[in-house]
Amino acid sequence: MSKGPGLRVPPTMGWYLAKTFVSRSIAVLAALVLILLMLDLLGESGDILAYPGNGQAAILHYVALRTPQIAARFLPFSVLLGTLITLVRLNANSEIISMKAAGISAHQILAPLGVASLAIAGISFWFNDHVVARATSTLTAWQNADYGPVKDTRGIVDNVWVRDGEDLIHVDRVTGKGAATKLTGVEYYDRTKDRLTTLARGDYGHLVNGAWQIEKVQLFDVKAGALRSVPAVTIGKGILPDRFTLASVDGDSLSFRALWEAIDELEASGRPTGPLRTVLWHKISGPLSTILMPLLAAVAGFGLARSGKLFIRAVIGMALGFLYFVADNFAVAMGNLGAYPPLLAAWAPFLLFFLIGEAVLIRTEE
């Protein structure tokens, strides 16, 4: 049986395959988002309505913020199911057999699906960068306020811990940047050989000659058990303002560019950036995972040695997709823990399952 050159496929057939695949994927995604959003609301609506004054408008606001998150998370899975439905239908109607009889290879049949998946991946990246990141940031702030009014927290960092040798510094709130950084609600734990010797609590602090001057301080001598008040104390000599202002960076709440800039600032201040780099690279590999789904689901269309067991083949295709998601989540978790290098954590599952999908397709059909 002859095969067509390369991955070229007749335009009419390519458009038909791509249109069928995209329509099925969108339908699956819409159904999943609707079902999962309803289940999510069952658990969250009580907490939302528990805050005085919240009503239907608050529920709709939550839906508007949560829907992009669910859609982005389950888009690759929807593409997997959309591919399975498309290929199973083509197989059941003997359309794939007709294409093969016309000399069209399995890779040529999958090529329009791959091109459509690439377009979906591009749209997904833009959607994650411009919609999901903002929705995540807004929803996180709203949840931290127990679904009450959210204050403008731009340029504000709360609940910061900084280590200075053996000593610890806790700050309730940090405002400003650089030399203008202000600390509010400062606690200083002076330790010697891992034993607390002095506890200092100050109302506020600022940078003076490379150290932090804390005003209106209550000093407690642990050994003597004595408490006294002093106008000011100086702590944390050599601690840069970035140690306070960059203490908490949520990669999921930032766009790709904003996260890249935050990582550069953290590196300049000598802070570890491995987990954030994993999140950064996964912002690319995550959307691109949609390209893998037609390849992993191809077994449903082309079979295992033409066994004819269509349902079993569909289950195998779904299992390969699930295994990819498990491996991807595991690798990202290992990257966040620092066990895997960021690039390996973000890209290893993608490359591994691309090779697995190609091997299965070639072994069973080509």
TrEMBL record:
The chain crosses the membrane at residues 21-39, 70-88, 109-127, 284-303, 310-327, 339-362. Its main location: membrane. Keywords: Cell membrane, Membrane, Transmembrane, Transmembrane helix. InterPro entries: LptG, LptG/LptF_permease. It is a multi-pass membrane protein. The keyword Membrane applies. Pfam families: LptF_LptG. It comes from the Bacteria. The keyword Iron does not apply. It is found in: Cell membrane. NCBIfam families: LptG_lptG (TIGR04408). This is LPS export ABC transporter permease LptG. It comes from Sphingomonas natans. The lineage of its organism: Bacteria, Pseudomonadati, Pseudomonadota, Alphaproteobacteria, Sphingomonadales. The gene is lptG.
